Amino acid sequence: MAFHRANKNRPREESSKVPVPVFREVFQIKKKHHRDPRFDDLSGSFNSEEFEENYSFIDDIKKREKEELEKELKNVGENEERRKQILYLLQRMKNQEKTKKLLEKQKAEREKEREEIMEAAKSGKKPYIPKKSEMKKKKLVESYQALKKSGKLEKYLEKKRKKQFSKDRKRFYK
């Protein structure tokens, strides 16, 4: 006899007249195996250069969207909320571009250093691999030179002094 549930949340009704079997039949539901492609070996390994090459069209789309947002910003009128939203999106896009350029620059520097090491090895010299501390100093000097060139060095140093002063004050008055 087949009994149906009155409601999907209620247990299934069964007749009390039918003897209960020794081994009750339980319907096994097959477990679904979810596969996250980020962590699965079947998806292969990530290659950033290949990714950039395959999805380079996204940069063009972003440029178009940025231009559209700039046009919309000019024509937004008195809608202050939309204006703030557009400004936020534009700033976000600029930050993303800045980060991407910085990463590309770092990658180019690493490639250049690698090539120099390889050339030294080919010519028979012992390859010189700089320490992390030396690399840090070199980058710091380059950033200071860039700030000096753009005329923002004094402002940067002033901010740094203020930050250090506040840190020292916190440390002394604990």
TrEMBL record:
InterPro entries: RRP36 (IPR009292)
Subcellular location: Nucleus, Nucleolus
One Gene Ontology term from the biological process aspect of the record: maturation of SSU-rRNA from tricistronic rRNA transcript (SSU-rRNA, 5.8S rRNA, LSU-rRNA)
Location, primary (coarse class): nucleus
Coiled coil spans: 59-123
Highest taxon listed in the record's lineage: Eukaryota
A Pfam family recorded for this sequence: RRP36
UniProt keyword annotations, A-Z: Coiled coil, Nucleus, Ribonucleoprotein, Ribosome biogenesis, rRNA processing
GO cellular component, one term: nucleolus
Complex formation: Associates with 90S and pre-40S pre-ribosomal particles.
Entry function: Component of the 90S pre-ribosome involved in the maturation of rRNAs. Required for early cleavages of the pre-RNAs in the 40S ribosomal subunit maturation pathway.
Family: Belongs to the RRP36 family.
Name of protein: rRNA biogenesis protein RRP36
Source lineage: Eukaryota, Metazoa, Ecdysozoa, Arthropoda, Chelicerata
